[in-house]
Amino acid sequence: MRAIWKGAISFGLVSIPIKLYTATEERGVSFHQVHREDGGRIRYRRVCTVDGEEVSYGDIAKGYELPGGEMVVLTDEDLADLPLSSSREIDVLQFVPLEQVDPIYFNKSYYLEPEGTAAKPYVLLRDALENSGMVAIVKIAIRSREALATLRVRDGVLLLETMIWPDEVRAPEFGFLDDDVSVRPQELQMAESLIESMSGEFSPDEFTDGYREALLAVVDAKVAGREVVAPEESRETGGEVLDLMAALRKSVADAKKRGGAEEEAPKKAEKPAAKAEKKAPAKKTASKATKKTAGTTAKKPAAKAAPRKAAAKKTATRRSA
After folding, report:
1. Which of 18, 26, 287, 310 has the fewest Cβ atoms within 10 angstroms?
2. Measured between alpha carbons, how far is residue 196 from residues 69, 91, 241 in Å?
3. Could you tell me which of 90, 185, 203, 66 has the C-alpha nearest to residue 147?
4. Are residues 63 and 71 in contact, defined by beta-carbon separation less than 8 angstroms?
């Protein structure tokens, strides 16, 4: 990684020299605008709207447009005296619990690395932050803009997350918030049941960008000269829900089925072994059949002896008579 900013953390009377690194990167697929016929890149010229002439980069200045349309031109000299241009300190303002900072304020993340001999005070601040369970609220001037930020610990490294200012958060001015919309207790209970059935541990590695993968597959197919295969269509979503309770019940049932299928997967793998065990009783059946046959043969003399017993009884009866 390449450091994009150098400065120091101002923590009371302690100054900790650091380097700033971008902690994240976007993996989206980027495209260029090209000429459809020959693939040539499309270039744009910087043209002044007043005289129509092309303007070189050195002649371009910053302009602030007033509500009436007038333009205020600011030169490099106008901006040179601003304290922001020379500020190279991350000024710690206060320490607060992380849960008090709404995630809507977070903007971009940066890793901080100690520079030179600053490893010890860096580790001191890191361990103190981690033990306290707090985050530091700081100010930083980066890329010609002052920003509020938080300082916290992640993977043994200080992580700075720039924030937007409170007046940059839009208020949710939607009409339904003024309406008296109510839900039935049964619907609320069913929705909570759906949330519970779909609950789990968050693991970012389980999720992928399906659109990016499909787009790269199209590019690979174009490079290799293969036919482009359209990805499978996703199931239809959206539309008006006519029966909210019915939709909730079905959603809960589907979620439970998916959970049950995951639990049954290991059992299905054991079926071949179970079939092998069931084959063994076939031999026992054969042996039972043999025993039955043998038993029938042994009982045949007893069947012959039955008439003899009957004849003996008749003889005894005649004698007694």
Report:
1. 26
2. 55, 43, 21
3. 90
4. yes
With cut-offs at 50, 70 and 90, classify the pLDDT of residue 267.
low
Question: Would you give the DSSP letter of residue 168?
Answer: G
**Structural domain boundaries in the chain:** 1-30+75-172, 182-233+240-274
CA atoms of 320 and 62, how far apart (whole Å): 143
Q: What are the φ and ψ backbone dihedral angles of 7, each rounded to 5 degrees?
A: -170, -150
CATH class of 1-30+75-172: mainly beta
pTM for the structure as a whole:
0.65
Contacts of the segment 148-155: beta carbons below 8 A, 24+ positions apart: 148/105, 149/90, 150/98, 150/101, 150/106, 151/9, 151/90, 151/92, 151/112, 152/98, 153/126, 153/129
- 3-state DSSP call for residue 75? coil
Q: Which residues contact 130 (CB under 8 A, 6 or more apart)?
A: 153
pLDDT, tens digit, 9 for 90 and up, residues 79-120: 877 776 557 889 999 999 999 999 999 999 999 999 988 999
- At 304 the pLDDT is 44
What percent of the residues of the chain are helix, what percent strand, and what percent coil, each to the nearest 5? 45, 20, 35
Strands 89-97 and 5-11: parallel
* Alpha helix (H) residue ranges in the chain: 76-80, 119-132, 185-197, 210-224, 244-269, 271-279, 281-320
